[in-house]
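Complex 499.
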Amino acid sequence: MSIAVVRGAAAFGARPAIVDRAGTHDYDALLAAAHGVARALLDDARDLAEARVAFMVEPGFDYVATQWGIWLAGGVAVPLCLSHPEPELDYVLQDTGARLIVASRGQVGRLESLAQRADALLLTAGARSARPAPTAGSAPLPDIGLDRRAMILYTSGTTSRPKGVVTTHGNLLAQIDSLVEAWEWSPHDRILHVLPLHHTHGVLNALLCALGAGASCEMTGGFDAHAVWRRFGAGGITLFMAVPTIYVKLIQAWRDMPRDEAARVAAGCRSLRLMVSGSAALPVTTFEAWRSITGHTLLERYGMTEIGMALSNPLHGERRPGTVGQLLPGVVAELRDEAGAVAAPGDAGEIHVRGPGVFLEYWQRPDATRDAFRDGWFGTGDVALVENGYWRLLGRNSVDIIKTGGYKVSALEIEEALRAHPAVRDCAIVGIEDEEWGERIVAAVVGQGDNVPDESELSGFLASRLAPYKLPRRWLLVDELPRNVMGKVTKPDVKRLFT
Ligand code: MLC
Ligand code: AMP
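Predicted structure with malonyl-coenzyme A bound:
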């Protein structure tokens, strides 16, 4: 899909594709707008030939028209995060070398100086969507093979700066096909989409699967607990996907509602056929509370930007809380011990994955790409075991990766940013367990000389450099960081400072 989604869309013609604040848009309108975007991007060129095109557009029709337009023109789509401060956006623009940027009217102002610095052409989204569909006389759009690069999503990891995960059209097609089959997507589905559109959960699972199946995707803004409940209450939604934090927030909001309203919105959930949780561990208490409120048994699944989705509880059959089910169609995975040998049945090991959905490379990081694979198998860094046929995640093998609100954050990236503050001699960032956020980011800081860092000063300093979801939520000033005999900071001891 990817480009295959775009090619397949003509068959869905007048069916509703996107519902956003401006109204309902059918597949024909989406295709016409995407062609307009492609022509504008191509200008006189025949093929963007995998040029990276960064775009910053709010969820809705223009976002999708831009994404599809980039693909039709032969470009690589690089969605920018709406909440990123300038330095993070600048990093992505520099790293991808994007010379074309598309921004919605509301975002153009933020991107002007960045585009200048990147020597990139800045186009306005939406302005082009009113253009007529291609006429018979216009040059044909390029023919895009499935082995071509399609998208770069930035993901934090064990390096201090985020890496660009490159997927081909073929990778995306495999990832989408797998989920459309497993979760039985159909043109009769209508998903309520509340996730950010710079990560795989929102882009692939919720948006592209819907459009690949000819279903409708409602995107009327980001996440707002009351708006979601109101929408459930109005009926007509068949699918919902979210991270555990969203379910926790929905449960909190539901408990605070007047009882008659609570009963009404919960009853509205009857129109849904599937509610999915993923991106972080779903607490069993949340699984149970959700079932008692809505009657729905959440389907928990496991995936990663680099591989798409790999494991899922069944659509039909028992969904076992605390597990991520079984292998999805087309996915091959095995558990390996620390020495790289396949783990004995019943033993824990690191999940290794292969298959057509596995990404191509980290953008311009051949060493990182090489290190991530062992004999063609991608090492996820997640440790699991198989228990009575169901896979159970046990944790990650890096303490420097934090999952907060479903976002993956690198402790090393925050530490590096914080050490640039003149009042900080040293620091350690860890994630501590949290009912609402999964993990909450906290910081232990050693001051420089007589300079005692002030918490709000440090927060402000980081906020101008890092995304809001990467900011520490608690601060502790310490004389020294706990270290082992080798002098290395011991993160488990840092965590204990906060309990
Ligand atoms: C925000 N806040 C946090 C926080 N994020 N506090 C602690 N920890 C965090 N991580 C605080 C803010 O400072 C603010 O506080 C208040 O919460 C509301 O902020 P917000 O930004 O308005 O929050 P909200 O919109 O409610 O965001 C929560 C969320 C969001 C869950 C909707 O985090 C989100 O969209 N998460 C999804 C991420 C995602 O898509 N991950 C998928 C990655 S792909 P105050 O005091 O100002 O009120 C992947 C692969 C796979 O993982 O398997 O899917
Ligand atoms: P990302 O790099 O943002 O794509 O996040 C991928 C990571 O999210 C995986 O490596 C896991 O650590 C985590 N993850 C995804 N789904 C689940 C789940 N159901 N339970 C626990 N962790 C999950």
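Residues 155, 199-200, 278-281, 300, 302-305, 324, 380, 382, 393, 396, 403, 408 surround adenosine monophosphate (ligand 2) (CB under 6 Å).
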